[in-house]
């Protein structure tokens, strides 16, 4: 026992214990530190961007330039953000089938994984709106009445107050929003595609965007319910204006004929 106690009191014993403790701490840190996970995430993100770049070079570079700088056939994509890519490619608008006044939605040709890769690559070119999460665009708990007020103030001029769309000038149009997913509606408000103005969070908060999505879901969610019987206001400004013009003008002509007939009859008598 005396020999053991003497060894413990050896001048180098404290140094040895400290070295062992440091070695053990270093080993545990290496094993459990999040740095390895972060490094793995960075590697995975770099791979996603590289794959997105390859897809971009095949399907997008001919119009938007090899580095996303744009050309005479397509605008610059630097700074548009991942949300713009997710919307344009996720609705089939891009790649465009042919140039025109407006690029319509069509069948999507990329998988969601490929869309994510393209979005990651475009996002790496410059900061822009990120792809929203489900919590961002879910209408659950939103204020439908407030959404209706916001929609009628900011959107109904083009999309009609029920979101069924309408004609614009020079061959452009506001699309029907009845079958558009909440995610893509949120992204459209965030990024302002084509003829639509953008509504960033500084202009319209994320909560207000959710309110608008909830309103659209309410007015378009049940096709069997049409307040007022006939779907008033749901046909768009061109068809409704034509109806008013034809029948209104017809009524005015009928009244004019009646007045002329009565006047002629009065003169004879």
TrEMBL record:
Keyword vocabulary terms for this entry: Cell membrane, Electron transport, Heme, Iron, Membrane, Metal-binding, Repeat, Respiratory chain, Translocase, Transmembrane, Transmembrane helix, Transport
Enzymatic reactions: a quinol + 2 Fe(III)-[cytochrome c](out) = a quinone + 2 Fe(II)-[cytochrome c](out) + 2 H(+)(out)
InterPro entries reported in the protein's UniProt record: bc1_cytC-su, Cyt_c-like_dom, Cyt_c-like_dom_sf, Cytochrome_c_Oxidase_Subunit
Localisation: Cell membrane
Chief place of localization: membrane
Stretches that traverse the bilayer: 242-261
EC number(s) recorded for this UniProt protein: 7.1.1.8
One Pfam family, short name: Cytochrome_CBB3
Broad EC category: translocase
Annotated Gene3D superfamilies: Cytochrome c-like domain
Cytochrome c domain location: 47-126, 142-220
Membrane topology according to the record: Multi-pass membrane protein
PROSITE patterns reported for this sequence: CYTC
Subunit: The cytochrome bc1 complex is composed of a cytochrome b (QcrB), the Rieske iron-sulfur protein (QcrA) and a diheme cytochrome c (QcrC) subunit.
Protein's name according to its UniProt entry: Cytochrome bc1 complex cytochrome c subunit
Organism encoding this protein: Streptomyces tropicalis
